[in-house]
Amino acid sequence: MELCRSLALLTGSLGLVSILIALSTDFWFVAEGPRFSFHSGLWPKEFHTEVPDYLRATQSLSILATLWGLVSVIFLIVSCIPSLSTRGYGPLVSSTMAFAAAIFAVVAMVVYTSERWNQPQHPQIQTFFSWSFYLGWVSAVLLLCAGSLSLGAYCSGPRPGYDAL
Q: What membrane topology does the UniProt entry give (predicted)?
């Protein structure tokens, strides 16, 4: 149980850090032409332009994934402290929150990927996804692993008996 909980805490923390870095950096999409290079992220720098709906959806879902991931990590930390944990339900709550964070992260990444993939191409401009985008996908996988490990910690933990009621 302790190994699963420790690994869940590690993967959950790495997932949380990776989604925070992905949210805050501007290297989701790169375009390179004959004489220029351009990169963009989720937060447009021009204040007078209309933000596309797919960017707003990706922003919102990524923020929700970050918040659920933070709640998951907090419950895992609390479950490691015996005086604060309540009958071993910390890993179960953490697992639920990590799975919710993973779902939000996957949906955010699918929305961004599908919209960027279908944009028209120019013959002289090469476009590709960059490291912030891939870090977003890594965070979804890490949060899914954290949820699985938390669930394993809950299932392998002691069950309360009649004397605990």
A: Multi-pass membrane protein
